[in-house]
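Annotated sample (chain length 394).
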Amino acid sequence: MEKLTVKDVNLTGKKVLVRCDFNVPQDAGLKITDDIRIRASLPTIKYILSQKPKKIILMSHLGRPDGKVVEKYSLKPVAIRLKELLGLDVKMLDDCVGDAIKQEIDNAREIIFLLENLRFHAEEENNDAAFARGLAGLADIFVNDAFGTAHRSHASTEGVAHYLTSAAGLLLEKEINYLGKSLDKPQKPFMVILGGAKVSDKIGVIENLLPRADEIIIGGGMAYTFLKAQGKQIGNSKLEKDKLDIAKGILEKAAQKNVRISLPVDNVVTDNIEAASNVKTVGEDIPEGYIAVDIGPKTIDKYCVILSEAKTIVWNGPLGIFEKEVFAAGTKKIAQFIAGLKATTVIGGGDTAAAVAKFGLEDKMTHISTGGGASLEFLEGKVLPGIAALTDKK
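Output written by the structure step:
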């Protein structure tokens, strides 16, 4: 990394402001249903604690309160869970900026604090300079450990970094190292698995990875725009008509660069996704009235043979509607297969990470990204504002 990390900075006796990603799912009773993002922040928090800081001030957003105080988006449940996980007091504050908050932090006996939801203030998403200065005024050093929001130019991710020495936390450093190595120095053969609903979401990724990848495997809804571009019948499957020419162009570019793009050779289809009625497996051509919802068994076998040669695999986007068990086989079997390989396996965040978790394979992958949108933009080769703003190593 060319940016400072938390281990490059003297934290002893300092007030340390840490941007975490505590945007966790909750049920109707505001009980946290998945605390993986909270647990992912613990190594950085524990490392800072080991350096004997004066105070640790944690901050995050939760949900989309649109600049208003909305009680269901309070971070209070996160503070309770953090206290349980750390075995230490975590003082929950009722706001995130202002003299009263600063005084409360300075005067309290506790070491660890959690600011209330940053997005209760519209200034957060607007990257308001005064709001960023207010956050910076709470501490001596800023640590960004929220990769999931690093692609957002917000006050707590980009703005605050202009007013304090700013370093990457351990989680952010890990994300940059794994994703960066996959792009810059992947062990070959380097294979990419792309899925999800839309070609439009992955155009940037494909174009950035074409010069680097040895093989690109495609599934999910986006596959059917490519199949249509090849003249196949796709029935009522997902189609982005305005992206057909782009799909054709990508296939031509891949051929020119000697990069193979593999598409489904058979498909699981249904005439009603919700009812899961008339589910059957067909070949490359899909009959009218049917929608492709998963890759078929021949495609699974084909993809496993290809992937068996891989030394580095990056996967972004599920290969079917994995949330429904009847349409989950493709995503599940590919996940199980690559989990058993002696290869570096990097899983993009969002739905792909959720699928891997659903199948109980989290500890079998080399790295699972905590940021869906951020990992996608990183793989597109975009500069992420939350990383770019960190202090450079000298």
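Annotation: The first strand starts at residue 15 and ends at 19.
Annotation: DSSP finds 15 helices and 15 strands in the chain.
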